[in-house]
Amino acid sequence: MSSVLETVQLSERKKVEKPIYGLVVRGVTKHFHRTKRTKNKLRFYQKIRHLFKREKEVIRAVNDISLEVNIGEIYGILGANGSGKSTLIRLISTLLLPDAGSIQVFGDDVVTHSLKVRRVMNRVSVEASFFKRLSSAENLIYAARLYGIPAAEAERKARQILERLGFDPDRMDEEMEQLSRGMQQKVAIARALLTTPMLLLLDEPTTGLDPKSKRDVQAFIEEIRQERNAVIVLTTHDMVEAERLCDKIAIIDNGRFIAEGTVEELIASTPSESEVPATLEDVFITLTGKRIEEDE
Ligand SMILES: Nc1ncnc2c1ncn2[C@@H]1O[C@H](COP(=O)(O)OP(=O)(O)OP(=O)(O)O)[C@@H](O)[C@H]1O
Ligand SMILES: [Mg+2]
User: Any idea what the CATH number is for the domain that residue 84 is in?
Assistant: First the structure.
């Protein structure tokens, strides 16, 4: 952690012109082996035989992906269901090992220095796990204690963040399992921000939230970017969110980046058939042939 801070402070002092990359991903690939499903209806003995002779198919969930994110930037990854967004986030967060390529977080390799990397990053995802019978306050205090934050400070900070996210503070003492999915998601975001991560991985942070909550979370993410000078990677299905928050956007399709740039660059590089200027959604549909759907 200290080396990261030192690097940042050093660069500020020297007024280095070159951007400091907080996150560098080079040619990363991750394959999964999945049992091939048969479309035909099988008789009982055929099913048994199939069980023993399982054919495997290879899923290229992440296929030769490279990216760089500067400190103070929000990098957006836009893709349909199953395009590889969460797999890429899990690779960066050390939860999965890449089959090929390398990932560096503030100069440290995620495979060889995973502990060091974990200390400077936090991930928010829809499948966040909690102690369901404990309240959100208790869950947040527990998480904060793991990072050495005293309980009173953790509670004060947690209340502050949750309130900022539009979470009713009166419900902080209710068991997690009694909270709606959206409320649980806000607790997951608060948990990631109790500490001061230098790298924040937000895997669909607003999917499933109502429009007001979505705006609250988006405004909060913008604040974090301004206040903390962190590196933020955000995956989303939401074009408006990507346009609003991201400095750079990559479009992922079948595990591959098929385009990358600012919104303006992406729009400029996509031929528009009509007189009306293209939108990010037009770019997405033109490049992937898919309409992106919000699974709310
Ligand atoms: N553990 C796993 N084992 C086998 N296949 C997997 C595994 N994890 C992901 N996959 C496959 O990898 C591909 C990419 O999945 P991933 O979860 O990264 O997509 P995603 O872009 O996050 O989708 P969504 O928008 O639905 O969250 C999918 O085909 C998925 O079925
Ligand atoms: Mg996902």
Answer: 3.40.50.300
Kindly state if the Cβ of 81 falls inside 6 Å of ligand 1.
yes
Is 180 a domain residue? yes
Cβ 87 under 6 angstroms from ligand 1: yes
Q: Which atom of ligand 1 is nearest to the CA of 34?
A: 4
Render pLDDT for 218-255 as a digit per residue (tens, 0 to 9): 998 998 888 888 999 999 999 999 999 999 999 999 99
CA 237 to ligand 1: nearest atom: 25
Torsion 263-265-271-274 (CA) sign:
positive
296 found inside a domain = no
Q: Report residue 59: phi and psi, to 5°.
A: -105, 120
Number of domains composing the chain:
1
pLDDT of residue 39: 63
Task: Assess if residue 293 is contained within a domain.
Answer: no
Span from the CA of 277 to the centroid of ligand 2 (angstroms): 30
Low-confidence residues in the chain, pLDDT < 50: 1, 295-296
Residue at token pair 């060091």 = 116
Binding site membership of 126 for ligand 1 (Cβ less than 6 Å): no
Instruction: Please state, in angstroms and rounded to a whole number, the distance separating the CA atoms of residues 16 and 134.
Output: 47
Query: What pLDDT score was predicted for residue 1?
Result: 47
Q: Atom 31 in ligand 1: which residue has the minimum CA distance?
A: 82
User: 118-160: per-residue pLDDT in tens?
Assistant: 989 999 988 788 999 999 999 999 998 888 889 899 889 888 8
Which ligand has the minimum distance to the alpha carbon of residue 236? 1
Paired residues of 109 in beta bridges? 104
- Measure the CA angle with vertex 211, ends 130 and 257; round to 5°: 75
Domain limits at 264?
Answer: 2-288
Which atom of ligand 1 is closest in space to residue 89's alpha carbon? 18
* Ligand number nearest to the C-alpha of 90: 1
